Amino acid sequence: MADVQLNGRFVGTVADAKKFVESIVTERRAGGVSKNVSVHYSPEIDEVHIENLGGRLRRPLAVVNDGKILLSDKEIVGLEKGSLSFTDLVSQGIIEYIDSAEEENSLVGFFDTEITPDSTHVTMHPIDMFGLTTALVPYSNFSTTQKVNTGSKNQKQALGFYAANFLIRIDMDVNLLHTPQRPIVKSIMHDLLDYDSHPSGQNLVVAVMSYKGYNMEDAIVINGGSIERGMGRSSYYRPSVAEELRYSGGLLDEISIPDKEVRGYKSEEDYRMLEEDGIIYPEAVVREGEVVIGKTSPPRFLSNLGDYQLATTTRRESSEYLKHGEKGKIDLVVLTENEEGNRLVEVKMRDERVPEVGDKFTSRHGQKGVIGLIVPHEDMPFTANGVVPDLIFSPMGIPSRMTVSHLIELLAAKTGAMGGRYVDGTVFDAEPQADLRKELESLGFRENGTETMYDGITGRQFQVKIYIGDMYYLKLKHMVANKIHARARGPIQLLTRQPTEGRAKGGGLRLGEMEKDTFIAHGASLLLKERFNSDSAMVPICEECGLVAIHDSYKNRKFCPVCGEDGKIEFVEMAYAFKLLLDELKSLCIYPKLVLGDRY
Length: 600
Known about the structure:
With 600 residues, this protein is α+β, with helices and mostly antiparallel strands. Strands 12-26-13-24-23-30 form a 6-stranded mixed β-barrel. β32 and β33 form a beta hairpin. The longest helix is centred in the last third of the chain and has 16 residues, at 404-419. The chain is extended and about 105 Å long.
């Protein structure tokens, strides 16, 4: 007797488990049981598991009966003409959705040529086991699982042509590649997705070699001439939004150029770009700290009800200005209202981004890297035909990662570029590598994709053949301009008097235990003291009781809260966070007595 579990709960037993499972599957195909039901028999523990809840990943497979596929040419013609839909095939039991557990009881063929009398299903195409972006990776059956997965994730971060109406859209934190291209090597998914209308990469000439060590550790070397010709250029868009909010008592915000009487007034220099209505004009060139929308708000705290009637109450400054590190041109100004009827002003800023050292690029095979060096065009290596690569890729990125698909795409795209055609790189069903090699040889190249190359600086021929070809490369949104962060002095937290946290707040960079060890190893004691001195404070300490004393700088007098003015009080330099700890210990009724030693 086999136990039966429905959604993980025991519901009964059956005498013949296999026959029971077969009857449910037959009934499901006939429409007697919901298509959402999955059934699985585990012979090891002699249990039948039936599942009908959501959250299971299922994929569609064509049903096979007695070695014959139920999906015939008649149904395929019906699908092409539109007289049949995919849903009709599912309801007729010709195609069914299978989850991973039920697949354990099935024998699934990749292609119809692999079908045996024991087969239960066949894939319509092996690509159906992949997600949408993973299916865009060409020749992915030649790479390791984790690198195909990485390649899929990288494509989601690539810059491209995200929407045709980008000029009138105001989206947060958007990048747009100026000259996106369709890939030479593509899969069937590129056509199904209409990828040509929203591409997100460029076809580059890639040489696999080292260049003075500047492309070690996954870095890449870029041809400066290619950048000057527009490679990898993009625009970064970011909006600023200001709203005239209404407050209790009839008070409201006002979008205008703030008066000098306003609390928190910056300087005339910061407001110079604003027009009479307090809003910046399109195509104005702005830098960080400059105001783009002038705005004043009523005071935060009204002391009594009498203040409501006073029109002269000082307003506070609440303008929108560019944050740390931002610069660019004003692209669009929109004046509108929100659903509450409040006036709303949105200003879109754009910044042209030219590839620089530190910007991130990747192929579609998880081979990501940052620019390590931008080389002048005349110093780049070149082939005997005079072809200069746009990008130099390190050969050390291949052996440990085993991304053979990266190398095949290089060869395939080279064949496609020279033959003037697109190459099909669909997973499990791509153009064979042997055919591509023959075609490349017929075009006058070496069949293995290597070429004789010359050093751009000395003009000497390299003693080895260099593997060179075309590849679809993507520029990722991780750019140095958005991440660069440095600070000397700046804002501090109110409680601990230590620098604030985060790039947006102009915060500091934390120096931890391990960073401390590197300074000790170098013997950089003064730098170490300075780094650990961000909240240094001179605290008055009573020598009698060892508690923190009080210094009244206004009256220039020092006294101890316990010993009075009789105690001897000395100023001691300490971290303000330590002084805070002493105060917290006192709140727990613990006596933190400081014993002062002699001065050296």
